[in-house]
Amino acid sequence: MRASDDRRQQKTEAFHRLHAGPAPLVLVNAWDAASARIVERAGAKAIGTTSAGMAWSLGYADGERMPANELIAACARICRVASVPVSVDIERGFDDSARAVCEVAGALIGMGAAGINIEDGTRPGTRELATPEVLCERIAAIRKLDARFFINARTNAYFVPWDDPAARFDEALRRARLYAAAGADGIFVPGMSSPDEIAKLADAVRLPLNVYAGHAGAPPVDALARAGARRISLGCGPLQSALGLVGRIAGEAFAQGRFDAMGEGMLSVGEINGLFPATS
C-alpha cells in the first residue's frame, strides 16, 4: 500500500501541529488495526503504535525480536484503516546499519505514516546505554528521506542503573540536545515521571517533550501538561490492561463457570464490524 503524497503530507503537518498545543497530544497506543480503530473512535487525534504490544500480538517478546517485515505489515494494516496521523515505534530501527534503518523508515513513509519513535537503547548484552552517535547518525539519515517526517527521538537514560539521579538527568539532557541537533522533531524520555524533572528538561530543550504514562500511578494529563509535557504516551499499558482482562475472563469461566467479566462493557459484533467500512 502506498499513500498519496498529498494525503501523507497533510497528515504529517497535522501531526506537527498537534505537538504545538494548546493541550498536549495524548497517545493511547495501538497494536493492531482493531485497537487503532477503537482508539480513534474514542477521540484520538493521532495513533501511536506500541512496539512491545505489536511484538506480543505477533507472538514475539519485546526488544526487536519480531522481524522488521512483520512490523511493517502490521503497520500497513493500521495505516490502511486510520484516518488520523499514525506514528510508529521502530525501537532502535531493527538493524545495525543506518541504511537498513532508512529502509524501514522509507517503507513507513510510503504507506502514509506521519512519524516514528526511534531510540538509542543499550549495548547488546549489557545494561549500558549505546553511544548517542549511533542514533544521531540514524536521525540524520532518516531526515534526508523526508524533511517533515516527525522523528521522535527516545533516550533510555532512565531505564539503565544510575547511582546519581542528577547525573542521570544530565545525561538525558545531553542526549536530547544531541538528537535535536541531528534533526529530531521531539524528545521522548520514558521513565522520567517527576514533574520537577519534566519541567526542568522541557525548559532546557526547545523540542516538544514526550513522557510515558502507561503505568499505574502515572500523574494525570493536566499535571504533566503543567510540567511542560507536550506529548503523553501510554505505550504498552493499554494492552497490558486488556490482557489482564482476558486473564480475568478466562479465570472466571474456568473456575466459576461464569461469564460476568466478559459481558461487562463488551462491544457488539455490529459495532466492531462498523469500525471497518467496506471501502477501507
Topology:
Elements: H1 5-18, E1 25-27, H2 33-41, E2 47-48, H3 51-57, H4 68-81, E3 86-89, H5 98-111, E4 115-119, H6 132-143, E5 150-154, H7 165-182, E6 186-188, H8 195-204, E7 209-212, H9 221-227, E8 231-233, H10 237-256, H11 260-263, H12 269-273
Parallel strand pairs: 1-8, 2-3, 3-4, 4-5, 5-6, 6-7, 7-8
Helix pairs in contact: 2-4, 4-5, 5-6, 6-7, 8-9
How would you describe what is shown here?
Helix 5 (about 100-110) links the parallel strand 3 (about 85-90) and strand 4 (about 115-120). The protein has an 8-stranded parallel beta sheet with strand order 1-8-7-6-5-4-3-2, sandwiched between helices. The chain has about 280 residues and is of the alpha/beta class. The longest helix is centred in the last third of the chain and has 20 residues, at about 235-255. The protein has one domain: Alpha-Beta Barrel (TIM Barrel). Helices cover about 50% and strands about 10% of the residues. Helix 2 (about 35-40) runs parallel beside helix 4. The radius of gyration is 19 Å and the shape is globular. It contains 12 helices and 8 strands.
Total of DSSP H or I helical runs spanning 4+ residues: 12
Q: Largest sheet, if any? A: 8 strands, parallel
What characteristic shape results from the CA principal axes? Answer: globular
CA-CA gap between termini: 12 Å
Q: Percentage of helical residues?
A: 40-55%
How much of the sequence lies in strands comes to 5-15%
- CATH homologous superfamily caption: Phosphoenolpyruvate-binding domains
Radius of gyration: 19 Å
Q: Tell how many strands the DSSP assignment holds.
A: 8
Unreliable segments (pLDDT under 50, ≥5 consecutive)? none
CATH-assigned fold name: TIM Barrel
The largest beta-sheet arranges its strands as 1-8-7-6-5-4-3-2
